[in-house]
Amino acid sequence: MNLLGKVSDPKFWAELKSKPEYKEMVDAITKEYADCCVGEIEATKFSKFCLFKEKGDRNAYQDVFFKRQHRMYAAAFMCLLFPENDGYLELLQNTIWEVCDQYVWALPAHIENIDVNNNCELDLDATTMSMALAIIKVLLGGRLHPLIRSRIDYELDRRLIKPFLKKRWHWEYRQNNWTAVCTGATGCTIMLNRPELFEIVRDRLNENMADYLRSYKDDGVCVEGAGYWSYGFGYFMEYARMQSIFTNGKYNLVDTEKVQNISTFLQKLYLDRDVIVTYGDCRPFGKFSLHAGFLFGLKSCFKDAFELPQKNRRRYDVHYFPFMLRAFNDYDSSFTQNEFPKEVTNYMGDTGWFVKRCEKYGFASRGGTNRESHNHNDVGSFILSIDNEQVLIDMGGRPYTRQYFEQDTRYTYLETSSRGHNVPIINGQYQKNIPETFSYTKYENGIFSIDFEDIYSIKELKKLTRMFSFTDNSVTVCDKLDIEGEFTLTERLVSYLEPTFKNGEVIIGKAHIKFDKEIFDASYSTDTHTLECDVNGNTTKGVTVYLTDLSLKTQDKCVSFTIAIE
User: Fold this and answer.
1) How many CB atoms within 10 Å of residue 416?
2) Of 403, 278, 388, which is closest to residue 340 (Cα–Cα)?
3) Residue 188, by phi and psi: left (phi above 0), alpha (psi -120 to 50) or beta?
């Protein structure tokens, strides 16, 4: 049974090298090989393994871990593309040997008790690397030394299959990207390498995937952000496709309206041709790219319902090994880029997200809760883009450390606290992260509104409604309060551009924020945002963030300001 499609055929790899439509993919792989397959990689040292617990640092260990992983994947692709070169196979087998020698395939950040000998932990990396090894064994078959094939079988049984059969894992109940990635990779590994066991675990795996889909509402919004949507949904789709083939079409997880809505999530996030909404732990600036293989897979499955993003927003890399295979397997010359519509409004009312794109600007705002996976305290916040750049911004996430994910420290950071978002500050207080607090949104007569008083947990605050109204070249923000006694209110605006002040306006790039000087005082302060780490765990230097405040001088309970695009 061919579970991997045409990439299983050596003739396919031999022929594609002469086809111009595959040149970009082949060039990307050869570049990655040149970048990560030269020289020796140090062992994964115990001292670096311990740094996460001791200091919260993830990158020192992960840098070496991912380099070896990338080397294995890049060498595997070079073996498929250039089977005549024995050097690629030698490097691949040496790297597989090193990977099999590693103490654990999970990352220290994901191991519950790091002081106990536990080298069979199942996390995102242990499961996805298992799936990649199972695929490599299938694709290269007899070209691999019998001992390498036997070692892969042994380690997959020891590190993945037996631990999975032994107990239920925390990610089976999480209802986020972990559930989909770990379940999908585990299920695909079993179908590929231990197919006789799949019938035993199929119902459990499918219930996990049903749980993952329950993390979405019917509108298909991924509250974790665009990156985690592609990660989780990507492995959901890999599992769904493979299971359908394995069961001769008996089990089809994708043929529902909800799954189709999830598949079209990204195309609803575009604020301009390159800029997307960056809620959750996204990368900054909104210049977001997705693996082309994931995109081609969605296009081949959902056809015209799925809109391919701009070509420069697609990437090829071996880090997501099955997605890179999907790029080759699912590419079709008929896949053309959809025309980018300038005038679009998407109200995703089940989750409370709103995105509007027009000729002069792009705008997004969100309701929801502050108790979401990869949560930021940002209910009621908004983003404004002009000329293909976020002007009033959402910073996205920051480099991952232990402290970033601990409840006591997560909201001390500018990126996650409401002090770093375009939301009101009331009585000097920021939004809270409290269970069972919600907002309520509606979009009616061209106005998007959010009721979110519970999010602040201020006893005197009985009602807080934020309303956005729109023209072709402006957005007006109106906040209405029902609050007992005297109060203070500050409207915060966040940007990477330094503001200037002139005649009742704050000017940030081409955004002119017009306000009543009799009602508001305008000022700004600065903070520093450290850009999110890249896929290799590297961070770039920090950037200055400008926090502009319109501070209410009166006791008005209905205030507004207008952002005009000049």
Assistant:
1) 25
2) 388
3) alpha
Residue 89, SS3 per DSSP: helix
Q: Are residues 292 and 373 in the same domain?
A: no
Contacts of residue 55, defined as CB under 8 A and 6 or more positions apart, other chains included, come to none
Give a yes or no: residue 339 inside a domain: no
Q: What is the DSSP pairing of strand 500-502 with strand 489-495?
A: unpaired
Q: Are 490 and 549 in contact (CB under 8 A)?
A: yes
pLDDT > 70? residue 534: no
Q: Could you read off the pLDDT of 84-117 as tens digits, one per residue? A: 999 999 999 999 999 999 999 999 999 989 999 9
Residue range(s) defining the domain that contains residue 382 = 344-565
pLDDT at position 535, please? 37
Residues 451-469: what's their mean pLDDT?
97
| CATH number of domain containing 50 | 1.50.10.100
Q: Which CATH number does the domain housing residue 538 bear?
A: 2.70.98.70
Average pLDDT for 449-460: 96
**Within a domain: 338:** no
Contact 481, 396 (CB under 8 A): no
- Per-residue pLDDT at 365: 98
Same domain, 106 and 63: yes
158 in a structural domain: yes
Identify the domain boundary among 330, 354, 387.
330
Residue-by-residue DSSP string for 447-473: EEEEE-GGGTT-TTEEEEEEEEEEETT
Say whether pTM exceeds 0.90: yes
Q: How far apart are CA 335 and CA 330, in angstroms?
A: 10
Q: Are residues 387 and 528 both part of a single domain?
A: yes
Task: Specify the pLDDT at position 283.
Answer: 82
Residue 336 lies in a domain: no
Round to whole Å and give the CA distance between 277 and 399: 19
